[in-house]
# Entry
Amino acid sequence: MTIVVTGATGHLGRLVVESLLERGVPATDIRALGRSAERLAPLADLGVQTATIDFEKPDTLASAFSGADALLLVSGSEVGQRVQQHANAIDAAVAAGVGRIVYTSAPHADDTDLVLAPEHTATEKLLAESGLPVTILRNNWYSENYVGQLDTAEATGEIVSSAGDGRVASASRADYADAAAVVLSTPGHEGAVYELSGDEAWSFAELAEAVSEIVGRPVVYRAVSPEEHTSILTGAGLDDGTAGFVVALDGNIRDGALADATTTVSDLIGRPTTPIADTLRAARDQAAA
# Structure
């Protein structure tokens, strides 16, 4: 059996490869793909097959996908370009006769106003039209996305957001990676659409409490209006587009787009998901080491 993992030089893809190895998949049965041979080298040193690819260069994909029983298509990171990149990968997978595709999508991608969802929705449609067996992993938010809040909160004593009382059912990248590894290495997932999240959703007030304990000083949550939030972000140096994206995402959170907590991840991986406080504390400890 050959399991191919794209994005293996990124945070999630690398963790999926590591999880597959921990679950006993032979290194020689794993093919890790990424843009940088240098960053793939540590995986090659473990005996994992490696190959460099670029979703924008279809000729790099055919041989890399050849012989794949299962292909993890980790969604691209270049917002605005992902649909074509994913289309290239799907076409190459069909041409290579890949056994099945597992795709990392967005929560409720077929029925959501989430600002990040449209490219995922389009990709899911392409996958449905491909004729290949497909499994969709609709990952909720990554807890690591809030690591950047730690230093700011320590300096100011605040977490500022326009998310109101919205809640986020985040999980750690390692949780999502373990779930993907299970789906890739075990049978019975063809045709499934998994809504993946942390076991519990948290509020920004709860996030502030957790961060307070981690940084060792009182931290409060200051809820602001979208307009005030935009002004704060642009005043801090963000360009209008980035500030608008952040505020739109907080609006999605305020409206409940990331609040749906399920036990699907913990059911797949056989353990509870990682609380956000533990993820943030581990990241801070690692940065200090």
